[in-house]
Amino acid sequence: MFTAEIEKFIRSKNYPTFKPKAVFFDMDGVLFDSMKFHATAWVRALHEKNLPFTEYQAYMNEGRTGASTIDEIFVKEHGRKATEQEKQEIYQLKSKIFETCGKAGKIPHVLDLLEKVKAQGLQIFVVTGSGQHTLIHSLEENFPGIFQKEKMITAYDVKYGKPHPEPYLKALNKSDVKPWEVVVIENAPLGVKSSNAAGLFTIGVNTGPLDPKVLTDNGANLIFDNMKELYDNWEAIAS
Q1: Cα torsion for 188, 194, 198, 204, to the nearest 10°?
Q2: Cα dihedral sign for 149, 155, 158, 160?
Q3: For residue 134, is pLDDT > 70?
Q4: What domains, with CATH codes, occur in the chain?
């Protein structure tokens, strides 16, 4: 069903084949329905510092590390990057607001997909720009037996966050597989861009309010409207 898209990917990267042995999952918006809380927290924190920011911008910047997001805003508004103190103050405020937003539930049907991937014997990684301890710590609670700490790349593991390819290249190195042996599942434009830059087959699941064309424009090889669609079609992609 997806033969044309897969063959196009192979040709574009000059790879010998496409045979998945590992699946790299983004976290916010892919595993947890948490992006709405991140968006709210960013908007409120930045407005308290008299910095204009919208929820739409939060979704467009999803995947960046907190420091990178703050730098982007400061460059736009003040023509300079934020100081370390400014970054710490804003990110601490954002994190504090985030913790008051409530508990993020699982994205519908993502556990079904994870169990299917695990049953196939594929490696499972989390690759996230998030530094929220509560979400990272809740992986085992919400997805028991699925994730291993040594197979996580978070904001604390990288110098350059998404859209730089570093997070996915680090996961690739840890997984000890070839680029044509990986499927990435993302929901964010910058995450898609990061994965594509790392040379990986990227599936965009549009769980947020963005136009799906934004994901395609940033390099997604396939687009699904929700996780159930991806679950139903998984074997046609990674059998």
Answers
A1: 10
A2: positive
A3: no
A4: 3-33+107-238 (3.40.50.1000), 35-99 (1.10.150.240)
